[in-house]
Predict the structure.
Amino acid sequence: MIIQPPQNIQPLDAILPEEPLLMMGAGPVPIPPRVAAANSIVINHLGDTMAVIIDQVKIMSRYVFQTQADHILGVAGPGSAAMEMAVANMVEPGSKVLSICNGFFSSRLAEMATRLEAKVVKLEIKEKEAADPQLVEQAIIQHKPKVLTIVQGETSSTVWNCHLKTIAGIAKKHHCFVIVDAVCTLSTMPLEMENWDVDVIITGGQKGLSSIPGVSLVAFSDAAWDHVNNRRDVLRHWCLDAKLADQFWYQKAYHYTAPVSGILAIHEALRLICIETLPLRFARHLRSSLALQKGLEIMGLSLYVEESSRLNSVVGINLPKGVEAKKLLAYMSKHYRVEISGAFGANIVRIGQMGEQCRSHHIFRTLHALGASLKMFAVDVDMPAGVSALEHSLETFTYTKTMTSACQEAQLAEL
Ligand SMILES: *Cc1c(COP(=O)(O)O)cnc(C)c1O
């Protein structure tokens, strides 16, 4: 049978909204015009121009990851591909892995290690809480893992593992490699790969970095790279084999055709971070997220996680009684052109504060859109008070005044 061309396919213009939706959910996030422009270019993946770009991506990544180690690899794929690359290269079949689980994404790391036939111990952390370093140390002593996996910011439950630095130090003391998932947090809050003794950090494009989805980065420490290099077994993942990827990223040779446009986009995203500088970028994120949180609370809503372990990069809001998340989000999108996220499990909606989402005009618009939509669902919210609180918080933001919890002070000390 000859298959005929399909009829009634609409051009993109007819499908996409005339006015782009403001993407204020848990990712993908809006991208700067320079990133968008870079993403429209295709060049030779093995040419001289690409070599310059790859060199710069590695140099800028070392700044963003805060590492001097020169083992930065890009991967064509989502954040999950970077997670799998980290796990596949660090975890040998049959070896012990301790996975700190605060929700959906941290559990995905455990699932990946399990599929690689590691002996995985999951340390399930209490809902809404950050992992306790003492409990982690007990688990390390009891199980003697070779690799520990942990997420810095658990996007699904909006929990921040605020003791990450301490936990990484403990793991190092017990000769255990640490893999950190920083997909939603890298460049939004302090994470110092070298100073904190982290062995592998993963990030995606479409969250903290404010680039496009589909190209991700993995950074290995010198010790982690030695481990990867010294493995004698053949990796089960061909595309994700770090030693093969090293051929492209360090030896200008062919592994697979690199996602050139996406790499150009991430180059621009990293360059914008280098121009802004990390301390100022962290401050922008904190100022924006704290102001949004204040506005939401004064408007009459409650936040899902307590301040001490609350993730600033993605804010979880308890859904008022009787409101269905799906209907609320659809209404907000249709009438205000603002998209936020629902959740897996918990009865919350989530607003992202990553990269371009942390601009004052975006958070005012989002707070208004959410408040006005909730009113349509008969929820009693005080919009003027919320907007005013948001404004006041933005205006009065200083580190010393707004940093109240111990965790936030620790964050400040890192600046
Ligand atoms: C989004 C996310 C991932 C997965 O990224 P994908 O690009 O969807 O594969 C992993 N970890 C965290 C913390 C995330 O927020």
User: Anything to note?
Assistant: Residues 401-405 have pLDDT under 50 and may be disordered. The longest helix spans residues 278-299. Residues 235 and 241 are 6 Å apart (CA to CA). Residues 33-275 form a domain with the Aspartate Aminotransferase; domain 2 fold (CATH 3.40.640.10).
